[in-house]
Specification:
about 375 residues; alpha/beta; eight-stranded parallel beta sheet; three-stranded antiparallel beta sheet; 15 helices; about 40% helix; RNA-binding
Length: about 375
RNA sequence: CGGCAGGUGGCACAGCGGCGACUGCAGGCGGCUGUAACCCGCUUACACAGAAACACGUAGGUUCGAGUCCUACCCUGCCGA
């Protein structure tokens, strides 16, 4: 028996958007889906039950961070990540590949793997495909990601060529190291930067392994929106239709709509929770900064159209007050609201796809959220 | 009443002869993309190098030049009658 299966339920009549369902050992996931990020075995500022009531179906955890602290052996002894953090729905773990990029200045990449300087104390640690899989096995996630190199967007073609080839060789080692295929699924990651032929090469190579799902990595790392969409125009089609497709690291509504439209099923991003902690709320009429003086005496909810706990109980003036005072409750309430906003938007997207009106819904959303039908 | 210390943007402080005055906080605005992020950035007059401007308690004085030195006064704090 396999750890994961994907069922394609319906394809939008006019676009590549697809409505699907992923089944994992910890339950099913309706797609397209947005996955909140809980790097250190917690979605920051939120209790698992709060995350759950936003409608979140699956969350992320992180190999690199949990390996450093508390140590994946401790998570294993606790009974796995689900038990450790009390989240009983599916979990996807990132492999540490993104930290190759985000902590780039402190790393050394070799054929063997990546030597990290811990961002906590500067100590040296080696993360290799085998090590990453071993850690993710300890964590017990439903979906583990292959250890890849997420290269910077301004890398040369020569660099991306080498990086993409290395990612394939690392994938082969990940597949070999991955034993418990009936409990945890392993997803491969496409690289290749912004070069179409390299993306095609990457797709050919990684799909050889016949994995239960594939991700498109190396985008949403600081490139322009045009470059991002450029890759999206062809990349999803290079991946099998009967497997879930995942674009890693996207969280703004426009990036998600563009990806869904081209046949992508899964997304994750720190954006909604991070901007919440920084005083920004996503609303049906666009983003608002709760810090703004204009909300000082605004006793209406963040978003009158929202059904979340925060909007049902608190005013903008109160949330502004909490934020200005640095109260923890501000982070909690804004995070919950933003996650609810994301979950609800994806609910609407799924419904629209089922009814073959994805583009209409996209236009409607853009008009309200961005103030124009094309979002600019 | 006497002694001592001190008065610099909203607050707290730096500077101790070249200041169109440092820094932090507060205030205002913005940014966050597989989380080194309850973080980071910008801003706090107009104008622009002019016999112009100014957050250095007030008024005089010394000096080419004073937030900086001197005198008086006002105010605050501590100590002593």
């Amino acid at each position: 028996m396999k750890a994961l299966s994907y069922e394609l339920i319906h394809k939008d009549a006019k676009t590549g958007a697809r409505r699907g369902r992923i089944t994992t050992p910890h339950g099913t996931i309706e797609t397209p889906v947005f996955m909140p990020v809980g790097t250190q075995a917690t979605v920051k500022a939120m209790k698992p039950e709060d995350v759950e009531r936003t409608g979140a179906q699956i969350i992320l955890g992180n190999t690199y961070h949990l390996y450093l602290r508390p140590g994946s052996d401790i998570v294993r002894e606790a009974g796995g990540l689900h038990k450790f953090m009390n989240w009983n729905k599916p979990i996807l773990t990132d492999s540490g590949g993104f930290q190759v990029f985000s902590l780039g200045a402190m790393n050394k990449i070799s054929e063997e793997g990546v030597e990290f300087r811990s961002h906590i104390d500067g100590s040296k640690h080696m993360l290799s495909p085998e090590k990453s899989i071993a850690v993710q096995t300890d964590l017990g996630s439903d979906i583990m990601m292959a250890f890849d190199e997420c290269a910077p967007p301004d890398s040369s073609r020569e660099y991306i060529e080498k990086s993409q080839a290395l990612t394939t060789r690392w994938l082969e080692r990940c597949v070999k190291a991955h034993k418990n295929t009936e409990k945890q699924a392993l997803f491969g990651i496409m690289q290749g930067g912004f070069f179409r032929d390299l993306r095609e090469k990457s797709a050919r190579e990684i799909t050889e392994f016949d994995l239960p799902g594939y991700a498109i990595g190396g985008i949403s790392v600081g490139e322009t929106k045009e470059e991002y969409i450029g890759v999206l125009e062809y990349a999803p089609d290079l991946l099998p239709e009967d497997k879930p497709r995942y674009v890693m690291g996207i969280g703004t509504p426009d990036y998600i709509f563009e990806a869904v439209q081209r046949g992508v099923d899964m997304f994750d991003c720190v954006e909604p929770t991070r901007i919440a902690r920084h005083g920004m709320a996503m609303t049906s009429r666009g983003r608002i900064s709760i810090k703004n003086a204009r909300f000082e005496r605004d006793f209406t909810p963040l978003d009158p159209e929202c059904d979340c706990y925060t909007c049902r109980n608190f005013s903008r003036a109160y949330l502004r007050h909490l934020f200005k005072e640095g109260e923890n409750l501000s982070n909690m309430l804004l995070s919950e609201h933003n996650l609810r906003f994301m979950a609800k938007t994806l609910e609407e997207i799924r419904k629209a796809i089922e009814e073959d009106r994805f583009l209409e819904y996209k236009k409607e959303f853009y008009t309200k959220y961005y103030g124009s039908p094309d979002g600019k």
